[in-house]
Dihydroorotase (Streptoalloteichus tenebrarius), 443 residues
Amino acid sequence: MTSPLLIKGVRPYGEGAPVDLVVRDGVIVAIGAEASAADLAGAEVLDAGGLVALPGFVDLHTHLREPGREDTETIATGSAAAALGGYTAVFAMANTDPVADNAVVVEHVWRRGREVGLVDVRPVGAVTVGLKGEKLAELGTMARSLAGVRVFSDDGHCVFDPLVMRRALEYTKALGGVVAQHAEEPRLTVGAQAHEGEVAARLGLTGWPAVAEESIVARDCLLAQHVGARLHVCHVSTAGTADVLRWAKNRPAGVAGRMAEAVISAEVTPHHLLLTDERLNGYDPVNKVNPPLRSGGDAEALRRALAEGVIDCVATDHAPHAAQDKDCEWSAARPGMLGLQTALSVVVRTMVETGLLDWRGVARVMSERPAEIAGLPDHGRPIAAGEPANLVLVDPDARWTVRGAELASLATNTPYEGMELPARVVGTVFHGRPTAWDGKVRH
Ligand SMILES: NC(=O)N[C@@H](CC(=O)O)C(=O)O
């Protein structure tokens, strides 16, 4: 038995009067007045007066870069960034070197995540060998490995061949898993450098048209409903994709083959909720990301779709890059931006301050829905006695200024450098143990 933890004076979901949470052996054992003296003997106390408690965040889309690019992030530094950002589980994308397309690599990532012990690191398995889109990877072996992979993705690349995608959906269905698709029709994005629109035209950058995403999402929804499988759409970036998802999710049962068994879900990144292609005017590659920052109208449509539930959840697409891959000309720079430590604040700015979501809604899109989509039983659970103690404690009134150099990631490519953002993660509790408190990681 470990010593208990007493979290004093929190407001679960920002509702009602402050209560005390008593946590023992990874479980919430009592709330408020229920705490007895016996519960509290030898307890560590976290003074959480004025803080909002939410279920720990779950990120379905994190690039931890290990193995292969440990100069930009490691499982240890990425886990630290996750804990400081309020996350208790992250899904590590498969585009590592070597690619996580086999049991050896996914077990390595899983084991290393457990050794670090700050957050549940769940490896994503590649859909195809080497992310090449040609031959299915060993999905079953990865699912049956110690890592128990259930989320499969070629993220960074689209599974563009419709027959390969169909087979992937069929196999993952048999394994109880889900395909997370990076929706990008490659023939429509050859040489693409920026959202196809006025800004790209003015800057002379080759356009990445919205339809390259929307056409793949439409096709994949039809395929998933034809075979009755689960499809998750990564980083939705356009208003048109939100329309396609709304249509697909609302189709009457029975119009497609095995529609009743199909489940479609989708994520949006914090940066697509807040930032637009107007940021490209100075050609600063920190703003280069895939899919690209879109128009203001797109961002507004994404915020509405997230509030409505057409887009299920927020995922960071945390993508650390080395300085030399960002401090260069636009066309040579790698796409991607940091996200783990700024996600909550950007969601508060775009969704809470605008009145689109309350704290219950934040819990839904950052904790509950991602945990459900990935099938994680211990995360995204209600804050109640008997439930696992995976929690985040948030100061809703704080303001802080983002400094890339102060973030826990090895890389510094945050697009929010110097920006003042609302709300701060003060504490994270992972299986009953504080992993972050007041800006510091606790091992
Ligand atoms: N989202 C990004 O801009 N970058 C991702 C992969 C990718 O989707 O290109 C990365 O791994 O860096």
The mean pLDDT is 97. The first strand starts at residue 5 and ends at 12.
